[in-house]
Amino acid sequence: MENKAKEFLISPQTVRNYVENNHK
Q1: pTM to 2 decimals?
Q2: How far apart are CA 14 and CA 11, in angstroms?
Q3: In angstroms, rounded to a whole number, what is the distance separating the alpha carbons of residues 2 and 24?
Q4: Residues 6 or more apart from 4 whose CB is under 8 A from it?
């Protein structure tokens, strides 16, 4: 989960893509 937070700080768009993939 910590890695996800780091990615969010680095590229919030990446997290959005990850969430969309998960919701799919």
Answers
A1: 0.37
A2: 5
A3: 23
A4: 15, 18
